[in-house]
Amino acid sequence: MVTSDQRRRQLAREKFERQQKRRAEARRKSRQRALVTGAAVAVVAAAVIGLAVGGVFDSKDTKDADTAASPSATSSLPTPKQSPSPAMAIDQKATYTFALKTSAGNVSFSMDAAKTPQTVNSFKSLADKKFFDGTKCHRLTSAGIFVLQCGDPEGTGMGGPGYTIPDENLDALGKPNEQGQVVYPAGTVAMANTGRPGSGGSQFFLVYKDSPLAPSYTPFGKIDAAGLKVLEEIAKQGTADGGTDGAPKTPVTIEQGTVTKN
């Protein structure tokens, strides 16, 4: 026979489990909204897959309520004072290569400083300081948009370098369709943001399959063939929870990130 005390404990346990489930669902929806808030930071919503710093710049309290699913950072930038962006120190007429040595394989992509000077300069500055070394690619999406999101020093989708950089090259992918979207082709590397203009930091997303998104995420890199195959293998393994938007099932860590002039 179940005693009243046992029954109380059972009810308390069931209540706790329901709360945890609701919180997990809230975080999932929040990530979707942030990722593609217009498209990659509201990521899974077809063009809203929160590539916005998919929660990248959300506070933990905000995350419980809602995060994003697009390439946007999330829905809000950090409130602390922002540091100044790096002084221009690259050859704006040159091309650069960002080489990522990851736990899942090597991924390299080219960057054209003539098209995205602020973005390339920022990534060169951060890489030189070993900012990306030891960081995790915290998000993999497989519905609506198809990306691996990286560049968060916290590994939560809410971190950044402490400053923001302006959007660049937004018209490079053509004229938006009736839904206000353009196709980010497989092999594209673009900036995550919070869904607001000029809110990019250090988070970026690697596109492993053509993805329709709003033209709100600076496209600044082109992945080489070998790197694209690495991404496709990561995507095949899916997410840790079996969903369409979450941490990769097999953790992906950037062991070293270097930027060199070609």
Automatic annotation (TrEMBL):
Residues 1-23 have a biased composition (Basic and acidic residues). CDD domains: cyclophilin (cd00317). Signal peptide: none annotated. It comes from the Bacteria. Residues 102-259 form the PPIase cyclophilin-type domain. Residues 1-32, 61-87, 238-262 are annotated as: Disordered. Residues 253-262 have a biased composition (Polar residues). Keywords: Isomerase, Membrane, Transmembrane, Transmembrane helix. Pfam families: Pro_isomerase. PROSITE patterns: CSA_PPIASE_2 (PS50072). One of its GO terms (molecular function) is isomerase activity. The keyword Chaperone does not apply. The keyword Transmembrane helix applies. The chain crosses the membrane at residues 34-57. Residues 67-80 have a biased composition (Low complexity). PPIases accelerate the folding of proteins. It catalyzes the cis-trans isomerization of proline imidic peptide bonds in oligopeptides. This is Peptidylprolyl isomerase. It comes from Streptomyces bambusae.
